[in-house]
Amino acid sequence: MKIIGILLAAILTVISLANAAETSKRYDFEKTFQTTAGKKLNIDLKSGGEIHIIGNDKNQVVVRARMRGEDRDELQFNAEESNGSIRVTSEYTGGRP
């Protein structure tokens, strides 16, 4: 089995964006959701990775990801909101030997 050399740093923050232009240069993926207290956050990182969650009093969830490693082009990362929850997923889409 091929060892996936992907380092994924998915940073989930509950803060407002102070400088969106600067932030977008540092991340490969970024999506902001307006939300309320009580919603679920579902995380399914099939590619593996590292997660950081930071909270404050804003009604916002910001999902940011950095994809690293030689196989990063074969990684699919997504965040979406449905049915009262926010779902964050990643999957390796490359072929297996």
Walk me through the structure:
- The chain has 97 residues and is mostly beta strands.
- The model is unreliable at 1-24 (pLDDT under 50).
- The protein contains 1 helix and 7 strands.
- The longest helix is centred in the N-terminal third of the chain and has 7 residues, at 20-26.
What are the salient characteristics of this protein?
single chain; about 100 residues; mainly beta; four-stranded mixed beta sheet; three-stranded mixed beta sheet; 1 helix; about 50% strand; elongated; disordered N terminus
Question: What is this structure, in a nutshell?
Answer:
The protein is mostly beta strands and 97 residues long. It is 7% helix and 51% strand. It is built from 1 helix and 7 strands, in the order βαββββββ.
Structural class: mainly beta
Coarse morphology: elongated
What is the average per-residue confidence, as pLDDT, rounded to a whole number?
74
* Spatial strand sequence of the major β-sheet: 2-5-1-4
Number of separate domains: 1
User: Order of helices and strands, N to C?
Assistant: EHEEEEEE
